[in-house]
């Protein structure tokens, strides 16, 4: 089976199939439009998305009356940063930007992939944080730029 488009996302689907197979992906794999994956039931499928779109957690790759195949993102090793003041937020955002480190935001939390040097920096700056395994909804994406 080759998947060329996304049916929808379980978060917004009104009707679902009773049987669910899952495709577990690393967050880095969400940006790949072409890949071969295996479901948790051992079925191999190809993904070749026609549209220029990234996968997100909960995307439905296939659905009929009885079955559906859903993308589930594996947990990442993250630093969850919880700055208390705007000064702390500015300091850590500046430092992470200098390192070209991608971040995501969920509520009042900043999420970055674990890096021991960033963890040491957070300790030095006394910025509240924790290391945890956690699912992210989308891939961490590096934003390219040039220094001219």
Describe this structure in words.
This protein is of the alpha+beta class. The protein is built from two helices and eleven strands, in the order ββββββββαββαβ. The protein has helices at residues 86-98, 116-124; strands spanning 2-3, 8-9, 19-25, 34-38, 44-48, 59-63, 67-73, 76-81, 104-106, 109-113, 129-134. The strands form three sheets. It has a four-stranded mixed sheet, with no helix packed on it. A four-stranded antiparallel sheet has the order 9-10-8-11, with helices on one face. Strands 1-5-4 form a three-stranded mixed sheet, with no helix packed on it. It is elongated, with a radius of gyration of 18 Å. The chain starts with a strand and ends in a 14-residue tail after the last strand. The model has no long low-confidence stretch (mean pLDDT 90).
Structural classification = alpha+beta
Oligomer: single chain
Number of strands: 11
C-alpha geometry: elongated
Helix segment count? 2
Q: What does the main sheet amount to?
A: 4 strands, mixed
What do the pLDDT scores average to?
90
Please state roughly what percent of the residues sit in beta strands, choosing from under 5%, 5-15%, 15-25%, 25-35%, 35-45% or over 45%: 35-45%
The sequence of SSEs as H and E is EEEEEEEEHEEHE
In whole angstroms, how far apart are the ends? 47 Å
| Arrangement of strands in the largest sheet | 2-6-7-3
Helicity level, as a percent range?
Answer: 10-25%
The rounded Rg comes to 18 Å
Q: Give start-end ranges of low-pLDDT stretches.
A: none
